[in-house]
Amino acid sequence: MFFLAESIGFVFISIDSNNSRRDYFNPLGPSALKFGASFAWNLHPREGENAMGALATAVRIRHDLHSRLINARARTDEVFRVVREEAMYDRPIPERHRIIFYVGHVEAFDWNLLAQRAFGLRSFQRTFDHLFAFGIDPVDGGLPSDTPADWPSREEVERYNRRLREELDHAIEHALERPEEGHPQLISMLEVAIEHRLMHAETLAYMLHRLPSGRKIGGLEKAALKAHRVKSHLVEIPFGTATLGLQRIHDDEFGWDNEFEAHEVQVNEFAIENYNVTNHDFLRFIQAGGYENRSLWSEEAWNWKAKEGIEHPMFWRREGNLWTYRTMFGEIRLPLEWPVYVSHAEATAYAKWLGRRLPTEAQFHRAAYGTPDGMRERSYPWGEEGPGPTKGNFDFKSWDPSPVGAHPAGASAFSVHDLVGNGWEWTRTEFASFPGFTSMPFYPGYSANFFDGKHYVMKGGSPRTAACMLRRSFRNWFQPHYPYVYATFRCVED
Ligand SMILES: [Fe+2]
Description:
The protein is α+β, with helices and mostly antiparallel strands and 494 residues long. It is built from ten helices and 14 strands.
């Protein structure tokens, strides 16, 4: 669906679709914001904790929230610093907005979410609130046609952003000092603002990956870890239970609507590859004619591949007999030990070529969080300890993947490697609601717009995924033909 709106001098095109995911995240416009229904975040004292202890925890969490918002801003600021000034109005992905839109969007989102409803602040530049409110996601080849001249100057946008941050920071500080007087949903709203921004920090990296190196500031990263070739094998995972989702009542952890309600799933015995499919593995598929083998592709995937002329992963380039790889800041020889980043359609074809399949979401959970003794499931593949640099390539550690198996300390109880970090993992599970799903009242389309059978769940995380979104219940999703995501895969036999 297309909307074309004139908003005082700037052409604003918003395309509302539920057909492909997603370098954009939108709140409803300010007029539609409506809080009030309960949301996932709770400040429940843990069992055995006294009232004073609970109060101290609540104060600490509130303080942390503002610090986390400020840190999240540093992440999006860091991404925009990669862009040379003359490239700020470029459009690296044809289906997406120009970069300048996102400079305003990550701020306008916070403003539209919080200012009026949480703090009663009056808009100081309504035109920009609307201009930067909505991303675009066209379908059926309908590409945006705006020009750089349709957008305000960088200076105007930065002035808007500065004032917006000042006003919000002042209001947040004030509100967190007197929580009893503040909006009852403030904590949930701040969590949404933080994670929305961190998701953009990641999806902006996908976008800037497509920007030519000469338009970016930053040198090639040195290979941080010496590459060693590992040999993948299948690991048997016995029949057992996987707990998907997050408990709404007793967990003190934030979750998006699609993470609720927690529920158990029985998973039959299956076998899973202990390492991700590498560029080396995938090269064999290409050399075996995998892209020309009609029987490996669904009709839809075949047509997409033909229409787009896709003959290899989007991150690769062929130069005669040599393959090169497009890293964030330049081209290198194809790093054979890195996990291959491909679309869901390409991953599915590869698995079929081997007579295997992509895992289901529940199988991923079993391999990642289950234990051979069938005892309590883990919070992370490696155990209960929070995400740290030895456990995987995530939390903005790198702009690019590391070799598979380079973080053995992050392996799961079944010795399956890199399940969290180094690239999202495609599953064959269509993105859908869990039993007990309810939309967030202030953001009803966040997940529900994508429950259409055309999107697949991804689990795990990439080098650019923030630590807070590595929680077990977090679910990512994309349509099967979007080739820019930092997504890899592994296969199962079941
Ligand atoms: Fe957004």
